[in-house]
Write a structure and sequence with these properties.
By secondary structure, the protein is an alpha+beta fold. 35% of the residues lie in helices and 7% in strands. It is built from ten helices and seven strands. The strands form two sheets. The protein has a four-stranded antiparallel beta sheet with strand order 1-2-3-7, with no helix packed on it. Strand 4 and strand 5 form a beta hairpin. The longest helix is centred in the middle third of the chain and has 20 residues. The termini are far apart.
Length: 273
C-alpha cells in the first residue's frame, strides 16, 4: 500500500447515506454497497479462506511476550490494546545478526502495525488490538485467513456506528471506502482517472505520484453531487474482463463466486412513474 490522503468530506457525505438496516448506501438513483469483489480487486486482499475467529479471553501480555519477545508493562497495555508507538519503539531497527526467531518477531510486529494502522483502524488511529496477534503465530497458516472479508465486516460495523449523530469519528479502512467511491461514482473522483497498472490491484492506480486527489472539497459539494447523481453516473456492473485480465492472481482468489446474478454490486430503483 502507498500513501493516500483521506478526503474527510467525501467520507462524511457517504456515511450520511449509509443505512445500518440494509448495509447499503441509499442514493436517489438506487441502493449500492461495497462488496467482497471490490475488496479483492481494489486491494488484493484475500476474501476467501478461514474466518478470523479466535479466543477473546487470552492473557494478552503473555501472548505478546511469546510471539514478539517483549512484554508490555501494565501502563502500556489496556485490555487487549497497545499503542502503535509501543510497537514502533520496540521494533524500530532489525540487526543483520538477528537470528531467525527474532526476524519472525519483527515480521509479526510490522504486520500488527499494518493491521492497526491500515486494515482495522480504530477511532484513535494510534492503537491496535493484540487479538490479531494470535493469527500471526504461523505465517503459513496466516495466509489462509480471509483477511479481506474481515476488513469489509469491520468497515461495515464502523460505518454503522458512524451514523449515530453523537459519533465524531470513524474507524475502519476508509481508504477502501474512498477508492470504491472513486471507481463506482466517477463524478466523485479526481478529474483525471489514472490508467490501470498491470499486475497490481486496481486501487494501486490511485496511489501513484502526481494524481489530483480532491483534498479540499467542502462536504456540501459532495452532498450536492450525490443529490443530483443520475442512474447512468453510477457503475452498477461488476468489474469488466478488461480490468480483470490485468489483475495479479491474488485479486482473483474466489473470483468464481462473484456472479453478478447472486452477488450484485447495487440495486437500481425502478421508476415508479
Amino acid at each position: 500500500m502507498g500513501y493516500l490522503k483521506i478526503n474527510a468530506s467525501l467520507i462524511s457525505a457517504l456515511i450520511e447515506r449509509w443505512r445500518p438496516e440494509t448495509h447499503t448506501f441509499h442514493m436517489r438513483c438506487g441502493e449500492c454497497t461495497i462488496t467482497l469483489q471490490d475488496v479483492s480487486v481494489l486491494l488484493g486482499i484475500s476474501v476467501d479462506g478461514l474466518p478470523l475467529i479466535g479466543p477473546t479471553n487470552l492473557d494478552w501480555a503473555d501472548l505478546c511476550e511469546e510471539l514478539l519477545g517483549v512484554r508490555p508493562q501494565e501502563d502500556e497495555i489496556r485490555g487487549s490494546v497497545v499503542k502503535l508507538s509501543w510497537l514502533a519503539h520496540h521494533f524500530a531497527q532489525i540487526n543483520n545478526d538477528d537470528d531467525e526467531e527474532q526476524v519472525r518477531r519483527f515480521a509479526r510486529a510490522w504486520i500488527l502495525r499494518f493491521i492497526g494502522g491500515v486494515l482495522f483502524v480504530d477511532k484513535s488511529s494510534n492503537k491496535v488490538s493484540l487479538r490479531y496477534l494470535q493469527f500471526l503465530r504461523d505465517f503459513e497458516e496466516c495466509g489462509r485467513y480471509a483477511w479481506g472479508a474481515a476488513v469489509l465486516g469491520f468497515l461495515y460495523r464502523e460505518m454503522c456506528n458512524a451514523t449515530d449523530y453523537k459519533t465524531k469519528s470513524i474507524g475502519g479502512m476508509c481508504i477502501l471506502l474512498q477508492m470504491w467511491a472513486w471507481e463506482r461514482c466517477p463524478t466523485l473522483a479526481p478529474k483525471r482517472t489514472p490508467s490501470q497498472v498491470e499486475n497490481t490491484p486496481l486501487g494501486h492506480r490511485w496511489l501513484r505520484r502526481g494524481n489530483q486527489h480532491i483534498g479540499n472539497d467542502d462536504v456540501r459539494v459532495f452532498r450536492r453531487k450525490l443529490d443530483i447523481m443520475k442512474r447512468h453516473e453510477f457503475v452498477w456492473e461488476p468489474y469488466p474482463s478488461t480490468v480483470i485480465s490485468l489483475l495479479p492472481p491474488v485479486c482473483l482468489v474466489g473470483n468464481s463466486s462473484f456472479n453478478p446474478l447472486s452477488f450484485p454490486t447495487a440495486y437500481p430503483l425502478k421508476n415508479k412513474n
